[in-house]
Sequence to fold (289 residues):
Amino acid sequence: MTTMKNGLILAGVDGSELSDAVLDYAIWLSKKSSAPLKILHTIEHSHQSDQVGHEGNLTPNIKEHLLDELSDEERLESKKLIADGKQILNDAKDKATAAGITELIAKQRHGTLPEALLDLQSQLAMVVLGSKGHDHEGELQGLGAQIQDAIRVINKPVFIAKSAFTEPKKVMFAYNGSPTSHKALNLLASMALFKQDLEIHVVCVQKNLAEAQNLVEDAQSVLTGAGIDMIGEAMTGDAVEALTHYQTTHGIDITVMGAFSHGKLHGFFFGSFTTQMLLESQTQFLLVR
Fold:
């Protein structure tokens, strides 16, 4: 029934304003898919001392003294980060347990989030992350510094939480016929989650309306064969503008789409469609690579 049964739902929490939303959506996904939940907190050490360095003017004894002070500062910072992280994990575990999650793992790791995901991906069915962390705290828009690398580094679906949890009712699948969107279509068809009281909208935006309609019909054939009813919409125009307008007018809760189908170099020069959608949309996202 579902591709989730052989993997974990991983929730990446960091204590930022979106951590609760990440955990809530991960709990929802875990319960809907009957998959175990893993809560992950990563500690990335980036110590910067308050000491001002003038190494060219320092005697060897003073240099050694400063190095000792730096070492002490780093140890204190590391202890605080570990203690804070444990509290974040304990709070998350308590919330997940109270929500009825029985298969639960909580883990703290040192290093960056992308490094942790790459190491753990063989265990995972899906990753749930917030669109921004502490680096964009309080901003209405913006993406976290590591979010694109985290999405690119693994070949697992990534659920992006952008706002506080509300029970999802409507899903929009942005389908353009690309290899990643075709992979997303197959995921949509295979997951029991999308057969459980969710209204599925398949939206295709192309330069030519007939081409868009053909894509809608292709998607409908796959989804109908999997027992999923859908609402199809063929559109022309700017894809980001058309899709975000559809999200707003139809009250979409989750947008499903293929992600980062072009390489980093293309995205650097021309901008990434995935990034634009994440920045311009208010929905949650399920991204497939």
